[in-house]
Amino acid sequence: MNRPLTVLAIFFSCAALLSTGCGRKQENTTVNIISEKDYAKGLSLVALGELVKKSSDAKTLEEELNKPNSINNLDLNEDDKVDYLKVTEYGKDNVRGLSITDEVAPGETQEIATIEISKSEQKADMAIAGNNTIYRDPGSMHYHSSFGLTDMLILGYLFSPRHTYWASPYGYGAYPRNYQPYGVSPHNSYANRVATYSKDSKFAAAPAPAGRASMSPNAGKTSSTFQRKITEARNSAKAYQSRNAGKKVGTGGFGRKKYSTPSSPSRRSPFRSRGFGRRR
After folding, report:
1. Per-residue pLDDT, 219
2. Quick one: CA dihedral 144, 134, 98, 56, positive or negative?
3. Is residue 109 a contact partner of residue 223, using CB atoms and an 8 Å limit?
4. Comparing C-alpha atoms, which of 124, 68, 74 is closest to residue 96?
5. For residues 210-216, average pLDDT
6. Measured between alpha carbons, how far is 198 from 194 in angstroms, rounded to an integer?
7. What confidence score (pLDDT) does residue 266 get?
8. Global confidence as pTM
């Protein structure tokens, strides 16, 4: 076969291969949908316990929680701003407690967590409990650790002979003069930021306590706005999963799920399956 005929044969062979692939659809395009957000990733309970240890009093603890780049990255009303967290002190006898709350909307208080410290003559025990609406994994809802009496700066303040406990006077839209709202950090950035708090921490996951020596004044308080957002997200996720029950599922993003679904290819061959040299 002479050279011109050889080149022509190769050309027609390539065209035939391209036209064969034109009718096939690739099925590797992924589509992301928003599922339920993991709010527990907005406030590390271990980091919270470490911050309590280092705080001199309840007021200072509240100030530290609401500084930019602090351990607080919660956004329960989803306005892309970190929520202001309030601290309320309670307790009696040898048990003192701190309730952490979030006024999600005007007049709507959502308790986030409680920290209870019991003191004996030789040591102090700290128990942290996350609200089960936010911290839904039983294995990461309760933490405990024991310390020497000189290991916690806040201990002297909590058990001093006082008649007035700290109860935050602030609320939704009424913040301290020097407070400035700031944006929510991406989860990876937040995780790296709080890693220093948990690196050498002695807090360990613990079972839920059988009973409480003292009751938080904010126990049972929930925000209807926050509850509604959770319900809407769950219903949306269930509806999508019901419609796409046979499709593959993978994880991805901060507190979200990624679902894969087939779609049309974004790039097609310039040749049609019928004829040669005609474009679609």
Report:
1. 95
2. positive
3. yes
4. 124
5. 80
6. 7
7. 43
8. 0.74
